[in-house]
Design a protein that fits this description.
about 270 residues, alpha/beta, TIM Barrel, eight-stranded parallel β-barrel, 9 strands, about 35% helix, binds SN-glycerol-3-phosphate, binds calcium ion, phosphoric diester hydrolase activity, Glycerophosphoryl diester phosphodiesterase, PLC-like_Pdiesterase_TIM-brl
């Protein structure tokens, strides 16, 4: 089992920036991930979807309508079309007025998984270890293709990058494990179903990913999962009372939209 938190860190709980530092910057943009790194996050969370021409981009919703000035499903748009869109303005101005135009455009345009991996590599080259937690979002129509492309992209990057794959779909995690059993996997759970009650996970999955709602209603879940030898990564934890609950229960990672504030709270405990 891996140690909790980052190597060298005195904090027992790892803090994961959900869609980047998405409370302060537009989610899933380079700006949000750079902010998360500056804020001290131990790991970065991202959702990945396939474009019409087969690239993996970091977008949560099926459509781009909420987070860009465009319309339509990610799967119906090509990467070049997505690259024309602005994924930053919906969140308001970014404050970094002194950035050259090219840099600020890159900061708020669609983010490919490739570019996010490069950011993590750039950090590693500068001596900063940041983990990457990639969640597969995959309509049935794309069954298998998201995982295949994800593994192809990872194969083009430094194998030392600490990557894990998360999903609500046991089948998606199974595909990853079958092809790349060395990649840690996280099984996400929104509600506690009867089959989850003993803390067991789908075969080969090492990390439980319960919602904070599960822990509010069933705080005993953390002990169940730990007894089965699983780490527990909880999402999405923004409320200070929930951070306190997570610390009390001894979870292994907190996934949050506000990494700096959570780190400050944990440091004060
Ligand atoms: O980290 C898990 C969490 O991101 C799952 O929910 O909808 O934000 O992808 P969602
Ligand atoms: Ca997610």
């Amino acid at each position: 089992d891996q140690p909790q938190g980052s190597p060298g860190s005195r904090r027992p709980i790892s803090v994961v920036a959900h869609r980047g530092a998405s409370e302060d910057a537009p989610e899933h943009t380079l700006a949000a991930y750079r902010r998360a790194v500056e804020d001290g996050a131990d790991a970065l969370e991202c959702d990945v979807r396939l474009t019409a021409d087969g690239h993996l981009v970091c977008v949560h919703d099926r459509r781009v309508n909420r987070t860009s000035n465009g319309r339509g499903a990610v799967s119906s748009l090509e990467l070049a079309e997505l690259a024309e869109l602005d994924f930053g303005s919906w969140k308001g101005r970014l404050g970094d007025e002194e950035s050259p135009e090219t840099e600020s455009r890159e900061h708020t345009s669609v983010l490919t998984l490739e570019r996010l991996l490069r950011l993590v590599e750039e950090q590693a080259a500068a001596g900063r270890r940041v983990e990457l937690a990639i969640e597969t979002k995959h309509p049935t129509r794309w069954a298998g293709q998201v995982e295949e492309e994800l593994l192809r992209v990872l194969a083009r990057h430094d194998p030392a990058i600490p990557v894990r794959v998360m999903s609500f779909s046991a089948r998606s995690l199974h595909r990853i494990r079958a092809a790349a059993p060395w990649i840690p996997t996280v099984y996400l759970m929104q509600f506690l179903l009867p089959r989850h009650r003993d803390g067991r996970l789908p075969p080969g999955v090492g990390i439980a990913g319960p919602s904070i709602r599960i822990l509010r209603n069933h705080p005993e879940y953390v002990a169940w999962a730990h007894r089965e030898g699983h780490r527990v990564h909880v999402w999405t934890v923004d409320d200070p009372a929930d951070v306190e609950l997570c610390a009390l229960l001894g979870v292994d990672a907190i996934i949050t939209n506000r990494p700096r504030r959570v780190l400050d709270q944990l440091d004060e405990m």
